[in-house]
Automatic annotation (TrEMBL):
It comes from Lentzea indica. The chain crosses the membrane at residues 7-36, 42-62, 74-93, 99-117, 137-164, 184-208, 229-248. InterPro entries: TM_pro_TauE-like, TSUP. The keyword Lyase does not apply. This is Probable membrane transporter protein. Belongs to the 4-toluene sulfonate uptake permease (TSUP) (TC 2.A.102) family. Keywords: Cell membrane, Membrane, Transmembrane, Transmembrane helix, Transport. It is a multi-pass membrane protein. It is found in: Cell membrane. The keyword Hydrolase does not apply.
Amino acid sequence: MTVWEAVAVVIAGVFAGGINTVVGSGTLVTFPVLLAVGYPPVVANVSNSLGLVPGSLSGAWGYREELKGQKSRIAKLLPASILGAVIGAILLVTLPAKAFTTIVPVLIVIALVLVVIQPWLNRKLAHKRSHDDGGVLLWLGVFAAGIYGGYFGAAQGVLVMGIMGVLVSEHLQRMNALKNVLTAFVNLVAGVMFIFIADVAWLAVLLLAVGSVVGGQIGAKIGRKLPPAVLRGVIVVVGVAAIVQLLTK
């Protein structure tokens, strides 16, 4: 990796850390950058998951005020995220590498659709009423999102927000704070597993970690003041670039 490539990875980490905190699709920035500097898709995905863990934790810490009073939700949903992350990570390393290069473009398309329709999801979240705290359906939805996050992770946060928006009545910022905790642990659990069962590009992990910690704090401070339309536009462009990169590699 050249110096300029290293700088590009750090900058991608900053963007991903901020986007993950506010939107939840930072992998669509970092993953194609890792592909562009020469890492194979599975190695890039594994290293990306590990590198973004500090940024996810940074974003969760930045939203600590909004987490007050949500201990029971965290205790209920965290096991679902962790179990899903374990299954997703196992799928990543047990399925053939060719399966990843086939599946991931489809996952990116799904993620991009979720990013594009996020304003609609936010409106649903703002007006939705729920009779309870989501119940079994919420647990299963978070579990499924954890599997997705352990396997790839792009737009994992958008998935979680959409699920909670349908099933739970709560303020958007408090939901976002909870989302940051759940996705942080998905990345952490999957990342720890990858250390033992997969090839990791440690330089990329370090560079992403440095950038994502900074980005997580920036995202937490700016929050929803960031222009969502601009963010979505950037994510869509980068996501399409990732699809092209995968299909032509």
